[in-house]
Amino acid sequence: MKNRGLIIGASGIAGSNLADRLIEAGWGVYGLSRGRTQVSPAVQPIIADLASAESVRAALHSLDVTHVFFTAWARQATELENIRVNGAMVSNVLDALEAGPSKLEHVALVTGLKHYLGPFEAYATGAVPQTPFREEQGRQNVDNFYYEQEDRVFAAAQRQGFTWSVHRPHTIIGFAVGNAMNMGTTLAVYATLCKQAGLPFVFPGSATQWNSLTDMTDARLLARHLEWASTSEAGRNQDFNIVNGDVFRWKWMWSRIADYFGVEAVAFDGEVRPLEGRMRDAGTQWRQIAARFDLVEPDIDRLASWWHSDADLGRPMEVLTDMSKSRKAGFLDFQATDEAFFDLFDRLKAQRIIPA
């Protein structure tokens, strides 16, 4: 096979959808992970501890690939630890491949809009750029592991001669189990809990998010964007925002999601009601629902990321992304966000993750 891709995080929300896309396009695909979550049968699994240079080197010493896609990160207690651990993960992989038979053509790095907003521990507390966010706005003057990962890729590119691309999605909608940042599945679980308990579907976020324009990223669209940038002259050595291409307000989307599940959407009344605090006892309720409907995943912690959805929906500022750079470079794909949610919900039902 001409193109042979190594996906770091092939079982995650971005990596698994990318694997599906590349396999469909005829690539050879390898997936590097700790092996805790099963990858697609068409992906050749490689098990290693990404934080250990020795473990990664042993796993990759004979691998011959043309492309690398970084789609995973490891959350740490502080941003300085995020920088140390996630920066090392990038170097461990690229250093191991440099020592082996691989002649890399391109390395793609998936980060996100915290490039503009700042890391979680200093989230949106600095001089956030004016929306819509544009690539030319550059970096914030704060510690941020995204910047460290970029710098590690840039240094290796200079040394090894491959091209690179950086991809900045907004909140990603897509199918994955056991993912720490998965709003689509989190909202599906929340709506199911509401429906089974006969409770209204209460918006957990801020007035700004309820009323302001925003956007999101379908994982399938991100996968197409990654493939495009890694094989296109226009995608080389560039940073790109990547969102669906439509905009919406949560006051509209909340009703759309509620209608899908047949629950009552409650309009925002001025009070923020985070999910993390309200869902402390949801694990027991979910195990009962899973038993009643013969669902395949009774552990709610492998499905719902309350903290992450709270962070996104509780933001005190408008978050909107400009796609002009990708459009001008030739990437014209589009995805309606409400349909991205519905496609995910349909798949969750088909896979017996939520009740049909």
TrEMBL record:
Stored Pfam families: PRISE
Ranges for domain PRISE-like Rossmann-fold: 61-355
Gene3D superfamilies per record: NAD(P)-binding Rossmann-like Domain (3.40.50.720)
SUPFAM superfamilies recorded: NAD(P)-binding Rossmann-fold domains
Domain of life assignment: Bacteria
InterPro entries: NAD(P)-bd_dom_sf (IPR036291), PRISE-like_Rossmann-fold (IPR055222)
PANTHER family documented for this protein: 3-OXO-DELTA(4,5)-STEROID 5-BETA-REDUCTASE
Protein name as catalogued: Nucleoside-diphosphate-sugar epimerase
Organism the protein comes from: Paraburkholderia caledonica
Taxonomic lineage from the root: Bacteria, Pseudomonadati, Pseudomonadota, Betaproteobacteria, Burkholderiales
